[in-house]
Amino acid sequence: MSAFDAAVTAARQRFRPIVMTSLAFVLGVLPLAIASGAGAAARRSMGTGVEGGMLAATFVATLFVPLFYIFLTGRKARKAELAARETGA
What's CA 7's distance to the chain center, in Å? Predict the structure, then answer.
């Protein structure tokens, strides 16, 4: 299987568990982001930071991790090919 096919297959298999986990976490932190009353400013700032970080991490995990895998695997293959050419020549 090529690096691209492996990354696409892994991304498809991991998409649902990643989104379900992060959605549960974001919804669990939602009361902090909409807090009111005493100490609400601290809770809101913590809640919005955690929610934003979790949404960003979800985006990174679903899109950038497979892209970096393809990039690094292709780079490693090119290095191995160059080394083979140098030793074979």
Answer: 13
DSSP 14-41: HHHHHHHHHHHHHHHHHHHHT--STTHH
- What's the rounded Cα separation, in Å, for the pair 88 and 55? 49
CB neighbour list of residue 84: distance below 8 Å, 6 or more residues apart? none
Collapsing DSSP to helix, strand or coil, 89 comes out as: coil
What is the tens place of the pLDDT at every residue in 34-84?
989 898 999 999 999 999 999 999 988 898 999 999 999 888 888 888 888
pTM of the full predicted structure?
0.70
- Give the Cα-Cα-Cα angle 21, 35, 26 (nearest 5 degrees): 10
Rounded Cα–Cα distance for residues 16 and 33 (Å): 25
Alpha carbon distance 15, 63 (integer Å): 9
